Amino acid sequence: MSEPRRYRSDWRGAVQRLSADPRSVVAASVLLGLALLVAVGPMLAPHAPNAQLDITKLVHVPPSRAHLLGTDVYSRDVLARVLSGGRISLLFATSAVLVQTIVGTCVGLFAGLAGHRIDAIVMRGVDAGASVPRVLFLLALLAPLPHVPLWMLVLTVAFTGWFVTARLVRGEVRAIRTTEFVHAAHALGASRLRIAMRHLLPHVLGPVLVTSTLAVGHVIVLEAGLSWLGVGVQAPQASWGNIIADGTEFLSIAPWVSLAPGFCLVAVVLAASAFGDGLRDALAPGQLART
Amino acid sequence: MNTVVSSRPTGGLGDGATDPLLSVRGLSKTFPIRGGILNRVTGSVRAVTDVSFDVAAGETLAVVGESGCGKTTTGRCILRLIEPTAGSVTFDGVDLLSLRGAALRAMRRHIQLVFQDPYASLNPRMTIGDTVKEGLTIHKLAEGAAADRRVQSLMEEVGLRREWATRYPHEFSGGQRQRVGIARALAVEPKFIVLDEPVSALDVSVQAQVINLLQDLQRDRGLTYLFIAHDLGVVEHLATRVVVMYLGRIVEMATADVLFSEPIMPYTQALLSAIPLPDPLAPRDRIVLDGDPPSPADPPSGCVFHPRCFHPDKDVACTQVIPPLEEKGPGHWAACIKQPAGTSDFFLPAAALRSRRTAVSPAT
User: Which of A181, B102, B148, B262 is most buried, judging by how many CB atoms fall within 10 Å of its CB?
Assistant: First the structure.
């Protein structure tokens, strides 16, 4: 204890607190388990996700030993499709949310630290962007294009999703930048960049992570809506969203088609938000009031 | 506007013995009042008006006054945390207000600040070791294990245990947090520290400990303090000289001994009579001022104190003439047109002050 030692950083402390919180551990296990499942599952699945096994005899087969999650209206194995679609959905959602979070945080930090005039101009732009319904916005951007590659779809979805994060970060920065510990850093001679990275960012990261984990669920659902409108992930490539959308037509005769990916979706959204909550608490020592 | 003080050729506003370490001349800060949908400037608050003083190396200059009198703004202007509207601040021969960018950040090392609120002034997400270390990193004073050793010796110097470096601010009491704030300021080896009411938020018993720590550090490190306070008992114990501010202006300035025994200004006299006495049975005559301090957005004409002044010679001139800060006795400055210079006949050597002098107990 008495010899010099490296001080434990806040993040390492946060990981320790996180692993001591059962809720976060369960949530992280669910997320990791599902991620692992969709990563290796398609290789182990007995059927190809897009294979129409027997369009006359194997349509809407209920869950059985041969087809654990049943088959859909084109006699495709639902389990294989859920595993393959999960890959696309999780990858799509996490990458879109990652991009929109980074863009929103940067814009929010910039506006929050800028002077009144620049802040006002940037934030009115953000308000304008946020005021357009997202699906409408996406349709306007995507509909004119003949074929949209997946990465472009991700960027477009992210482009319409960063406004809320920007507004959140900007508000937090505005509130924190007048606190005395920021003045103290300023008085010590810290540069603006240092104050932003060391003193402001750690404080906004908690709420940003919480919104981002919630956004993951939202983007999966959004992608489903886009697929249904014909501008999302294109058939026959499965995604959780378009499996649910396709299955809703036959909900009364083959509920298993929508239920399986729906359950996965709910599990991801719940686990992600529980994990986000735990992360927020772990990042804010001494401020354990839960909202 | 009166520029009597700022137009004075040189010095004179310090203790007169040495070249001042810090020299403030004609410092003013006006905050705009914004209103309406277009955020137009609809008025202004004169937080600090034409403030001039010197601080000699090694002394403690106390700035006292009630809430809103501009004492904190004055301190923040010196630190360039607030940009003054007018005036000059010279530190060790350098014009602080002309510095920009990297030169300003480098200069900040020499002038540090200790805050009033030990809770808001520490980043809750940084260990106190990281907080103390930040200045070392910014100014590249030490790195790696050397920096950690430096942090530990600083912590011990301010009376904290070295193994507490890995803890977070919420694990500490107010007094301990204030020690962390002091260690943070000391890390960059400043010559000058602005103490912005450093003990006002602490328990009385803890106040004495922190005051003693500040005195020890001043002695050991040859520090110069600008001590902003409203607790005159603490000021009398700590200060070499005292500046009294009212509504953004300096109304009186003298050595602590002179100010506490022979205050000239009616405002200072009222302030001194308000010091709480530890003995509830001690006789005292409190001077109770009428009304509240006027709004700095709409200050009174002439002498800003005239609506509440009880000087027997107060007349219409007081409402018209802005009293210049004049040297009424050796090193004793006051802004009052009714008090002739060179007088030793203070108009109100009140029983209030005598009783206070006998009962005063230094905060130890």
Answer: A181
B152 at interface of A, judged by CB pairs closer than 8 A: yes
Residue B313 covered by a domain:
yes
Instruction: Specify the pairing of strand B241-246 against strand B249-255.
Output: antiparallel
For the ranges A57-71, A273-287, B167-181, B265-279, the one whose mean pLDDT is highest: B167-181
CATH number, domain with residue B247: 3.40.50.300
The predicted-structure confidence for B35-79, as pLDDT tens digits, reads as follows 767 777 778 888 999 999 999 999 999 999 888 888 999 999 999
pLDDT reported for residue A168: 93
Dist. CA A150–CA A145, nearest whole Å:
13
* Cα A60 from Cα A254, distance rounded (Å): 6
Domains and CATH numbers, chain A: 84-283 (1.10.3720.10)
With contacts defined as CB-CB under 8 Å, which chain A residues touch B226?
A: none
The 3-state DSSP class for residue B35 equals strand
DSSP structure class, residue B97: G
| DSSP class of A68 | T
Q: Give the per-residue pLDDT at B241.
A: 94
Contact of A189 with chain B, judged by CB distance below 8 Å, is answered with yes
Which segments of B14-145 are extended strands (E)? 20-35, 40-56, 60-64, 86-91, 94-95, 111-114
Closest partner CB to A185 (pick from B124, B134, B162): B134
- Distances from the Cα of A8 to the Cαs of A66, B184, B261, in angstroms? 53, 18, 53
B61 occurs within a structural domain: yes
**Phi first, then psi: what are they for B107, rounded to 5°?**
-65, -30
pLDDT exceeds cutoff 60 at A39: yes
Q: How far B281 CA lies from chain A's nearest CA (Å)?
A: 41
Rounded mean pLDDT, A203-222: 83
A25 contact partners, CB below 8 Å, separation of at least 6: A18, A19
Question: Is pLDDT at A1 greater than 70 in this prediction?
Answer: no
Of A186-195, B150-159, B284-293, the least confident: B284-293
A186 part of contact set with chain B, CB < 8 Å: yes
User: Do the Cβ atoms of B322 and B305 come closer than 8 Å?
Assistant: no
User: Residue ranges of the alpha helices (H) in chain A?
Assistant: 10-19, 22-44, 78-113, 116-131, 134-142, 150-159, 163-176, 180-188, 192-194, 201-229, 240-248, 256-283
Q: Is the residue at B213 inside a domain? A: yes
| Interchain CB contact of B346 with A (< 8 Å) | no
Using DSSP, state whether B44 is helix, strand or coil.
strand
Contact B125 A185 (CB under 8 A): no
